[in-house]
TrEMBL record:
Any GO molecular function: carbohydrate binding
An annotated GO BP: L-arabinose transmembrane transport
SUPFAM superfamilies reported for this sequence: Periplasmic binding protein-like I (SSF53822)
UniProt-annotated location(s): Periplasm
Top-level taxonomy: Bacteria, Pseudomonadati, Pseudomonadota, Gammaproteobacteria, Oceanospirillales
Designated name of the protein: L-arabinose-binding periplasmic protein
Site feature: The binding site for the sugar molecule has not yet been established, but C-87 may be involved: 100
Family the UniProt entry places it in: Belongs to the bacterial solute-binding protein 2 family.
Periplasmic binding protein/LacI sugar binding domain residues: 40-319
Length: 339
């Protein structure tokens, strides 16, 4: 019965598609020829070259192979690319997509396009916001519990400061911020509050606003802050993810600070952190709160598949948790999380 509904929807879509303009029509004819019974979904990510997203898309593809559906992996680094990716998916006969958007404010435009094509959408990692900046409740979402994971970062930094016997009054915090992205704000706020709870002086926290969520933008944001606050010898660093903390750590190295004077703690637990932990000598990158990108990729892809084939709508909002990994135990934690 469900399968019949699915096939009927597919046929309707195919006819609608044939009535569309020439570019899409050519592509869709190819899709019709190639069409088999397998359900097809898209998996669009904002940074396809980042280890977190590579693993997430890989995991989605794997669950598709296990359950028998096809996953088309696409990059969507700006609004234009995302909209073309959706057109492309539609032309290929996809019934929906999972997306981590390049800008959460694109939510209404993306949903508009998806609704025109009758495609189902789940967001992963970064949740859409509406024109008032509120989460778009109608779109199922799975992402990390930003505030709690941020708190784990702050607690890990405070514990390591104590282990190194640092006097908090003489330590500066480099808070690499991204105020455009709600999950980033949650994460850095959680970390800040945990540090303050542990007795870190608020006046020693300095903001470095980054333009993006990658290492290069964090490096550019961090460098001038370090130069302005040359009176501090000990630094702690936190941000929305480990790529950004690594940018901050690289900036401290360039500035001439030694690894033992820096405590950076990231978030993700992806290949970026594994590469850093695998270096011969320790760096200022002390650890990272690892979240399972494997689980994020698998769960969202499977949820979308069930939604399409069984009409089972996924939970409105799923929040996932994390575990601290350091240079000492990263391999064990990696295995535990199936990364
Ligand atoms: C955001 C960050 C990514 C990752 C993801 C879960 O999209 O930019 O690095 O932390 O959330």
């Amino acid at each position: 019965m469900r399968l019949t509904t699915h096939l009927t929807t597919n046929l309707t879509k195919t006819f609608t598609r044939l009535a569309l303009g020439s570019a899409i029509m050519v592509a869709s004819l190819g899709a019709v020829q190639a069409q088999d019974d397998e359900v097809k979904i898209g998996f669009i990510v904002k940074k396809p070259e980042q280890a977190w997203f590579i693993n997430e898309q890989r995991a989605a593809t794997e669950v598709g192979e296990e359950l028998g559906f096809d996953v088309v992996r696409l990059g969507g680094e700006d609004g234009q690319q995302v909209l073309s990716a959706i057109d492309n998916l539609y032309a290929q006969g996809a019934d929906g997509f999972v997306i981590c958007p390049p800008d959460v404010r694109l939510g209404p435009a993306i949903m508009n396009r998806a609704n025109q094509y009758d495609m189902k959408v789940i967001t992963v990692d970064d949740r859409f916001v509406n024109s008032s900046g509120e989460p778009m409740e109608g779109v199922p979402h799975l992402g990390m519990s930003g505030y709690k994971i941020g708190q784990q970062v702050g607690e890990a930094i405070a514990a390591e400061m104590e282990a190194r016997g640092w006097n908090p009054e003489e330590v500066a915090a480099l808070r690499i911020t991204n105020d455009e992205l709600p999950t980033a704000v949650e994460r850095t706020t959680g970390a800040t509050n945990a540090l303050l709870d542990a007795g870190f002086p608020e006046d020693n926290i300095f903001d470095a606003p980054q333009q993006n969520s990658d290492t290069a933008s964090a490096f550019s944001a961090a460098s001038p802050v370090l130069a302005q606050r040359g009176d501090y010898e000990h630094w702690v660093i936190y941000a929305l993810n480990e790529e950004s903390v690594l940018g901050g750590v690289r900036a401290t190295e360039q500035y001439g600070l030694k690894a033992e004077d820096v405590i950076g703690v990231g978030i993700n637990g992806s290949g970026a952190a594994f590469a850093e932990f695998s270096r011969n000598d320790p760096t200022g990158f002390h650890g990272t709160v690892a979240v399972s990108s494997t689980m994020h990729g698998r769960q969202t892809a499977e949820d979308l598949y069930r939604w399409i084939t069984e009409d089972q709508e996924p939970p409105a909002n799923t929040e996932t948790s994390g575990v601290l990994m350091t240079r000492e135990d990263w391999q064990t934690v990696r295995e535990e999380l199936g990364l």
